[in-house]
Write a structure and sequence with these properties.
single chain; 405 residues; mainly beta; 14-stranded antiparallel β-barrel; 18 strands
Length: 405
């Protein structure tokens, strides 16, 4: 019996000794992943299936200190991975990533809910939005020297749509006679490598001429047989992407509301004013609008205290650039029935919580690995605020397929 225990212990130690942050599951594989999600920080998903959507601006204005936020995310990727052992690995990939966010400030919500009942006769709020959609292609090269793994990933990216942050301002002023004057404006500029008035235009030569180039470098180290740590610096800019196509959309609103009594006695209109969205203006820029993808520095770790069947993992990072923010993840995974001497198990299940891309996410992932075929399914609850991410105000779903040997 003691010999059996010794053999089992030796097998466990040998297994974790060769552990990595993300061990390969096959020598060669073709994979595809698609993930999408939408969220907000107030409405539950079920609310949109009701016949009437009830909106309580009073509660909304009182509780949403950071305003009402919406976001949407799509991430699709295809890759071919080749594993020649720990000395050399290569992953060739291409994909599309896009995210859009909209925020209505608390000042606007409060005015809609309370008007000038509080005695404050003016209001100024903001409507903020930003959108970015990229197509990319690259190759990851990775090698291990004993306990140290190093990877280098050059990536070519093309901005399909980019909207710099927009601040649309609304101002409401109440006169001493009860007259209310409201005005607002917004100018939205959308940049792209694709002619936005002719999206079917396909001049791939011109697209590649304005493509950007950045690099990602990463290292991981087996501190202990059961503990691996890593550090990654993603999207180090080398060549900025250029966008020669621009679409501008302008919206203007200006209204005057007269006192009810005065308008009745004078038989004048209760309110006058106008709202207009100008026709889009398309132009081709002589000098392209230049951008780089934001850099991100991330530290990560995986701890397998009892062997490969269970791990605790986490990461912490910082995203630089216009929308700079911290990010982190923390989770645990169960991996049952090892399929081969490489990584990979018949059944994988993990739970993860985190804050990435300015969105809180609670995610569950299930993987089924039949050696030549692997399926991965994810489902998540999402929201711009932590507590809301547990209440069903946003959903995400994804599926991944791997085929190889």
């Amino acid at each position: 019996m003691k010999k059996i225990y010794c053999i089992l212990i030796a097998l466990c130690v040998a297994a974790v000794a060769a552990a990595e942050l993300n061990p390969p599951h096959r020598y060669f594989e073709i994979g595809a992943d698609v993930h999408a999600g939408v969220s907000n920080n107030w409405f539950q998903v079920s609310d949109f299936f009701n016949e009437t959507l009830v909106i309580d601006f009073t509660d909304m204005a009182a509780e949403l200190n950071k305003g009402l936020s919406f976001d949407a995310l799509v991430d699709a990727r295809v890759n071919i991975e080749m594993n020649f052992g720990r000395a050399f690995r290569m992953d060739v990939f291409t994909g599309v990533y896009g995210q859009g966010m909209l925020n209505v400030s608390q000042d606007i919500l409060r005015f809609i809910a309370e008007g000038n009942a509080t005695g404050d006769h003016s209001m100024s709020g903001t409507l903020g939005t930003d959108v970015n959609v990229y197509a990319e292609a690259g190759v990851e090269l990775k090698s291990f020297i004993k306990k140290l793994g190093i990877s280098f990933t050059p990536t070519v990216f093309i901005p399909v749509a980019y909207v710099p942050r927009v601040d649309a301002t609304a101002t409401v002023t109440t006169g001493v006679d009860g007259t209310i004057h409201a005005s607002g404006s917004a100018d939205v500029a959308v940049y792209s490598v694709v002619p936005l008035n002719n999206p079917a235009f396909t001049d791939f030569g011109s697209y590649m001429a304005d493509a950007g180039l950045d690099f990602t470098v990463a290292a991981e180290y087996a501190v202990l047989p059961s503990l691996d740590v890593g550090l990654e610096l993603a999207h180090i800019p080398a060549v900025e992407a250029g966008m020669r196509n621009k679409m501008t959309v302008s919206a203007r609103a200006d209204y005057t509301v007269s006192p009810v009594l005065s308008s009745t006695l004078d038989k004048t209109d209760y309110y006058t004013g106008s709202y207009k969205v100008e026709d889009p203006v398309y132009e081709t820029l002589d000098s392209p609008f230049k951008i780089s993808r934001p850099m991100e520095l991330t530290a990560s770790a995986v701890w397998r205290p009892f062997g490969e069947w269970f791990d605790v993992n986490g990461s912490a990072g910082y995203v630089f650039g216009e929308n700079k923010h911290f990010s982190f993840t923390a989770g645990a995974g169960f991996h049952l029935v090892k399929m081969c001497k490489l990584g990979g198990h018949l059944l994988d299940f993990s739970l993860t919580t985190g804050y990435e891309n300015r969105i809180w996410t609670q995610q569950a992932e299930l993987g089924l690995n039949l050696r030549v075929l692997e399926l991965v399914f994810t489902v998540s609850s999402r929201a711009p605020e932590f507590l809301a991410s547990f209440t069903g105000t946003g959903l995400g779903a994804g599926v991944g397929v791997r085929i190889g040997f």
